[in-house]
Structure formats: C-alpha cells, structure tokens
UniProtKB/TrEMBL annotation:
<keyword id="KW-0963">Cytoplasm</keyword>
<dbReference type="InterPro" id="IPR016205">
    <property type="entry name" value="Glycerol_DH"/>
</dbReference>
<dbReference type="Pfam" id="PF13685">
    <property type="entry name" value="Fe-ADH_2"/>
</dbReference>
<keyword id="KW-1208">Phospholipid metabolism</keyword>
<keyword id="KW-0443">Lipid metabolism</keyword>
<keyword id="KW-0520">NAD</keyword>
<keyword id="KW-0479">Metal-binding</keyword>
<keyword id="KW-0444">Lipid biosynthesis</keyword>
<dbReference type="GO" id="GO:0046872">
    <property type="term" value="F:metal ion binding"/>
</dbReference>
<dbReference type="GO" id="GO:0008654">
    <property type="term" value="P:phospholipid biosynthetic process"/>
</dbReference>
<keyword id="KW-0594">Phospholipid biosynthesis</keyword>
<keyword id="KW-0521">NADP</keyword>
<keyword id="KW-0560">Oxidoreductase</keyword>
<dbReference type="GO" id="GO:0016614">
    <property type="term" value="F:oxidoreductase activity, acting on CH-OH group of donors"/>
</dbReference>
<protein>
    <recommendedName>
        <fullName>Glycerol-1-phosphate dehydrogenase [NAD(P)+]</fullName>
    </recommendedName>
</protein>
<dbReference type="InterPro" id="IPR032837">
    <property type="entry name" value="G1PDH"/>
</dbReference>
Amino acid sequence: MEIARAWLGRPVACACGRTHEVPIAHVHVGPGAAATLSGWLAERGVQRILLVADANTYDVHGREVLAALEARGFAAGVHVFPQRHGLLPDEQAVAAVEAALADAAPDVAIAVGSGVINDTVRYASFRRGVPYVVAATAPSMDGYASSVAAMQFAGVKTTLPAHAPQAIFADPAVLAAAPWPLVQAGYGDLIGKAISLLDWKLSRTLFGEYFCPEAYRMVLAPMRYCAEHAAEIRARSETAVAALFAGLINSGIAMAMMGNSRPCSGSEHHCSHFWDLLAYRGERDHMAHGLQVGYATRWMMRFYRWTARWLQARTANGGRVTQVTLPPWTEAEDQAARSFYGAGAEEIIAAQREKRRWLADHPLPAEGVAADEILAALEPELSLFAAVEASLDAMDIPQDPRGLDLDARQLRLTFLRAYELRSRFTVFDFLVSQGLLAAAVDGVLAEA
C-alpha cells in the first residue's frame, strides 16, 4: 500500500475541479526510518532539534532517533515525559513542551510517539512557531497528518487549530511491535471509513454535496486492503501493519485535501463521540477512540442494511425519495438540548441549526431521487460489509457492548441521539427525515 505522495507539499489541480494543497512535504515508511529522518533534516540545513517522547516511546524508538541525530552532529535537546501510562494532551503537558522549546530554541521539534505525544507537540510547537516532524511509533490513528490538535483542557476534549507536521517517518518494525490495543485502535479508525464513505456518498447522491473521487479512492483502497488482510495485521506482519499505517496517513491526506474530515468521519464517529459524552458523565469507562469506532462500525453496517432493505422495497414500484426534511429546531429543542447535554449544549444547538440551513440550501431535485439510484451509489461499500465484519472479528474488536462498558439502554439512546452531535448529514439524519429512526433502531436492536 503506497503513500499518496503525489499530493504532498504542492498545489495539485484535481479532476474534481478544485486545487488541493497538502502542507506535509514528505512521508517515509520503511526500514531505517531514524537514519532517513536525520538525513532529511540535514538536507534542509537544520541545526538545532528538540526531541519529545514519553518513557515508553523513548525506549522503543526515541533512543534510536537520538543516536541517528547525534551521528550526524545535530545539537539535539531531549524532553521525555516520565509517565508510562496516563499522559494526557492537557495544559500541563503543553506547558512542559513549550518550556522545553523555549530552552532549546530548536529549528525543528520531533514528536516520537503516537496520539498524545503528537497532539501535544503539534499544539505546543504551533504556539511557539516551531516546525515539527513525526517519528511514529504505532499505527493507532488517522491524525498524524492533521493540522488540528485533539486536546483535553479543563478535563474536556476539544479540537484546536495547530499545524501539520513537515514530514512523517515510520519504521515498519517499530509499528508492528506496538502494543496490541494501539494496533486495534488504528484498525478500528481505518475500517470505520466503510461507514463515513457511505454517509458522504449518500449526501452526494441526495443533495449533490461536493465529492472528490481522488480523496474517496485514497480512503477506500487501503480500507479495502486492510479488511482483506486483517489476519496478517493480527499476526503483526510488518508489510500488513505498514499498509495499515499507510491507510491512516492517506486518510489524513484526504482530509487535508478536502479541508475537513468528511471522507473519514461519519455516523460511526458520532456514536463514538456520544459514548465519550457518557464517559465524561461517569456513566461508563473511557475507551480508546479507535476501538469505539470499530465497534460502532458493526452497528452502522446494520443500520445501512436496514436502510438498504427499505430502499429496495421502494424500487419495486419505481419509488423515489421526494423529501428529506428534518423537524424544525425550535426554542423547545434548545431547552431540551441544554437539559440533556449541559455545558456542551450550545455546540449541539449550533450544529443542528447549521444542518438545517445546509439542507435548505441544498434541496433535492424537483423530481426527487430514485431509490435504485441511491442503492447503486452505496453498493461498493455495502458489498464490502461481509469482509469488514470478518475483519473486525479477526482483529478482536468487541461484539458485545459490555466490551465497551455499554448497556442496552445506552445503545438505544446513542442511536436515537447521536445524529444531534454534528452538522454533517449521515444515514441517521436520512432516517430521521423519513420518520424512520425509531423503527430502524427497534429493528436493528431486535436483529442484533
């Protein structure tokens, strides 16, 4: 699985009619990544470097990176967080990295790690105006290429503007040796694209939402490959794990091309966000994001199968979808949201009002949309569902809600309300618009 290097570091005129510009200059996935990283920096005239890691990532890759830097004569400062568990991308971590940046005055920072280290260095280096590069240690997320940082300030998860790395380096041997829960999380994050792509295509078919075929293929191809090679990922094949990592990087590149996360985040992510909300309330334990997305993918495949059956029943009579309208969002809904969501309600209210404005600006064609046209648009992903399901089993992604510390009541609540969390149109919104959500939830839960 190849990295989509043709799109990196320069404006590219796309067949979709837009010009995409991905700010990352270089991605390398291969043996000897530490030496390649140091050589890449030397070619660019870098002199002073700050390496940031935690106790685990320093042991598994940081020492190797530091040795490669010192072999080339770099002046390299080092900041290693002592924690082996429980490090958060919070105010304290950011302050520590900013202080280290101020002391070292580097030309470049190197984030040696995965999620928390990358987000912390991304945000702190952005605030200090210092470029950074990544030495990845796990195929755990699609955020390596992101230009925003997922932080946790005042105990609340928030996404903040930052900057993308100048380059990403990864050694397949390091990736394949990553802790199994991190590999599972990355797999769940990637396989969830089976649903986010469906949500994107559903909206494109109904409303003509902007769609880039290149970004679509960039996400679909590695997702399909990994679904077909999950057993090899499970066996920690370096080739297969490197393909998983490449798929996660390509997903990040696709999001950078789009300027948003549309290709990679849909109703499966909305379920995960809702479960995060329940965890913040103390109603369940916090779980890894990618594991939640993988579990949510199981459920969203069921919702898409239910929706496909409903559409198939309409095709017999040449049926068309002639109206997609959400119920009005009134002051009463505002009050209900404030009662249920508490401090996060204003974001929910804004998302729902924005969604209705978007739908008003993107009406269906006057004649509606044929049910068989919708099914044809969804078929490529629907046909992958059996392979996706088998791959989730191969990767030990939980089937039982208790594996995610969820109960039947919480699942029902999730499926009835997750569509409220974001302004993006998904299959949940389609079911709401047809007056079918409650019936779909009942049907899906009864079949599970």
